[in-house]
Specification:
The chain is an alpha/beta fold and about 450 residues long. It folds into 2 domains: about 5-70, no CATH class; about 75-459, Alpha-Beta Barrel (TIM Barrel). It contains 21 helices and 11 strands. The strands form 2 sheets. Strands 7-6-5-4-3-2-1-8-9 form a 9-stranded mixed β-sheet. Strands 10-11 form a two-stranded antiparallel sheet. Helix 8 links the parallel strand 2 and strand 3 (about 180-185). Helix 2 runs antiparallel to helix 3. It is globular, with a radius of gyration of 22 Å. The relative contact order is 0.09.
Amino acid sequence: MTAKEKISGFVLNQAMNYISGDPEKNLPKLLAWVDGIGWGEGFATHKKVLHDVLENPENNWYQYVMGLWKDIDNDVLKTTFRNFWLNASLFGGPKLDANAEKYGCNIPWAILLDPTSACNLKCTGCWAAEYGNSLNMSYETLDGIIRQGKELGTYFYLYSGGEPLVRKTDIIRLCRTHPDCQFAAFTNGTLINEAFADEMLRVKNFIPAISVEGFESDTDFRRGEGTFNKVEKAMALLKSKRLPFGISCCYTSQNVDMIGSEEYFDQMIEWGAKFCWFFTYMPVGRKAVPELIATAEQRAFMYEQVRKFRETKPLFTMDFWNDGEYAGGCIAGGRRYLHINANGDMEPCAFIHYSDSSIYEKTLLEALQSPLFMAYHDNQPFNGNHLRPCPLLDNPGRLADMVEKTSAHSTDLQDPEDVYELSAKCVETAENWEFVADELWACSGHCAGCRTQKEKVNV
């Protein structure tokens, strides 16, 4: 750790302690002090956002920010701020950019890892079942990936699976070994118990994103009877211990009305969730259920609902597909993140099960420079309309072309899926979404006509 990083960490720690005494009084005072000394001019945009939030106590984001200090353990909150803001962004960001330029490839802000393919549930339409339950990455392999990532500037690591908490002991051990990194996991939540929650409090740098697909009937329909009750108990336990957690929602043709309802957003807040990550169903794997793919109208419904509730609900939300406009299109292939499955295959995305690299045969950097990852690097964005970011779901021919040209192979060990067969399942969906997405894109001011009209109004 450099002297600058140590000093910044100390200042942040002191500031967080000061704020925690009385957030409503001390946070505005601290921001005014920062303004007064002229510090942080490089973060002018961030400061403006904070001013807008703190100067309007009726704003939902004011409620959200104050809720962080009220609802989350102070030491956990300090660690989260340090690892996300300082390590992953302030210090890690420039390092990522420098290495991307130096090596001529994408360098990811986050890495998604599958410690295991094993799972204690068998959810309808989940591709993880295709891998079987016998694949595991050793602690040493996981640790090695994280060490390589930190060298490149990556300080955020997420786990998926299988069910990652099957590997609780190793996950906590990795949190202890890398206290400068932020860890999270997409988990079904059923293995969270008091002992594990106490370990989370001890390491302070692990946050679960619990998969919930609506209320009891919707969740149990996909994940099995009794799952919803177990998940509610896990969330109640985390809330009681003032531990942060979020929700991971997969919206399908069957549950989209519930997932996008105000009732459900309010329920997530009531459970104590601080964020929600929305995904749409992808027909990955031969046992996939294409009928669960959301229609264009349903995806547009989620687009509108998420944006509406961002203005009214104290909940931080992300939509993996519909937020492409904020990320400049597809974030996979190392542009923002990549996926390494339990077999060690390095995939561009959790939803793209094709690879030309193994962590056991290449370094992380070598994989990022491999033909498949470079195809992503050279072709992103895959569409000028960033509401159509995905090379599979939104532009199905693009993925097939990259896989063929780079000789990438299917990573499904039990029943490999031909990329053209996979893409064919998405063609009709992509065609239907194209018309709707283009309308939304134009209406949000991303076409020349809309920009011209806005300029006229502003004049």
